Amino acid sequence: MKLWFPYKQMKNMEVLLSVKNAQGAVLHMENGTALIDGISSWWAVIHGYNHPDINAALISQINQVSHVMLGGLSHQPAAQLADTLVRITPQGLNHVFFSDSGSIGVEVALKMALQYFKNEGYTGKTIIVSLKNGYHGDTFKAMEVSDDSDFTNAFDDVLHRGYFVNIPTGGYNATDTEIETAVVEVEALFKQDAATIACFILEPVIQCAGGMNIYSPLYLQHVRRLCDEYNILLIFDEVATGFGRTGKLFAAEHAGISPDIMIMGKAMTAGYIGHAATLASTKVFNSFLGDTYEKALMHGPTFMGNPLACTVALQSIKIIEEQNYLAKIANIEHVISEQFKTIQSDFIQEKRVLGAIGVIEMKDAQSLAGFNKFCQEEGVWLRPIGNILYLMPPYIISDKQLLTLLKVIKDWIDKLA
Ligand SMILES: *Cc1c(COP(=O)(O)O)cnc(C)c1O
């Protein structure tokens, strides 16, 4: 096979269905079948496929200019998107650096944090703290701050890992004791190593690719306080959680706090074109000011701020704001929660729901062997990660389509024995 697929053992690979076109929440295959998409093409396609308003905005921008370098030139779509992102994100994130994917957005965030301390005259503040079971992308520094897993195993010998701490147990509504246990671990680490720790990067409220683990936003308030106390920068990776997925526009809002640096990607461009943004506080931005290049951020992806990507993002945010998407997301949360009550089995470890995310953690990955094929036969597209079966549908999904997805999940689980 000439085409090399991601996260795939290519030996004896099965023939994959090929998508011909897509409309709304439905993928249409070359073979004439159709699948309801339950996972928004890696969580990005929030408005569904082939959205008329986004298509129109994109075509109009293509007829103006499709791409121009942001090195030495500027353009309206990038400037407007920067303004808009500053407006809609938590207070204090006032500066926007664009890049072409979530992983690169993470690299930029880590560069900002590490160079911040260098620019401020510190030596030795070079270590990064992250959460166990986190996932921050597939490039090298992003792998280093992601927990070891199938994603990183092949590179264990070359990764220089920092420190990893546990998320609090107990889910969204954890008890004070559960939160306290996790906070004590962070505080002990900071107390001991503040001189060498530069930053703490985490996925706020839910860790996605690392197992769809939901944790208390109150933990984030404590982490914010400890980062301030020990002069450590706090980085939120909202590549998966941003743009409404958790029921708030950004997951940081659950905690009512602002990180020093925040990354967004995936849903930012609604699944049309890969792009990401790394936002920084004025404190971080100002440390890069100086009379020479020495203090400047020497990073610049070729396609950063691509006008088509920025146009899609602007149109997407306009739709989210004008069409009351948070209500749509609340409805998805309600439908999933109600239907999950009817799905019961000894094979289930735990069911979790947050915003437009529904998770069924099975006790054993074996319970999901053949599930993806079953879904295709039943006309839906779902793709578990190990023992984690999850739904992250496009926000425009109809109740009927959502109920079909949930029925297929229930049918599969009911026939396990
Ligand atoms: C997907 C993801 C990334 C990586 O984004 P890419 O666009 O695939 O490089 C980083 N962080 C989180 C939380 C993600 O979910």
From TrEMBL:
Quick one: where is this thing mainly located?
cytoplasm
Q: Which residues bind pyridoxal 5'-phosphate?
A: G102, S103, D237, P301, T302
Reaction(s) the record says it catalyses: (8S)-8-amino-7-oxononanoate + S-adenosyl-L-methionine = S-adenosyl-4-methylsulfanyl-2-oxobutanoate + (7R,8S)-7,8-diammoniononanoate
The places in or outside the cell where this protein is found are:
Cytoplasm
Keyword Translocase in annotation: no
A single Gene Ontology biological process assigned to it is: biotin biosynthetic process
- What cofactor does this one take? pyridoxal 5'-phosphate
Q: In which pathway does it act?
A: Cofactor biosynthesis; biotin biosynthesis; 7,8-diaminononanoate from 8-amino-7-oxononanoate (SAM route): step 1/1
Q: Where does substrate bind?
A: W42, Y135, K266, G300, R383
UniProt site (Participates in the substrate recognition with KAPA and in a stacking interaction with the adenine ring of SAM): Y7
Instruction: Return the Gene3D superfamilies for the record.
Output: Aspartate Aminotransferase, domain 1, Type I PLP-dependent aspartate aminotransferase-like (Major domain)
Keyword annotations: Aminotransferase, Biotin biosynthesis, Cytoplasm, Pyridoxal phosphate, S-adenosyl-L-methionine, Transferase
What family does the Swiss-Prot or TrEMBL record give for this protein? Belongs to the class-III pyridoxal-phosphate-dependent aminotransferase family. BioA subfamily.
Q: How does it assemble?
A: Homodimer.
Q: What is this protein called?
A: Adenosylmethionine-8-amino-7-oxononanoate aminotransferase
Protein encoded by which gene: bioA
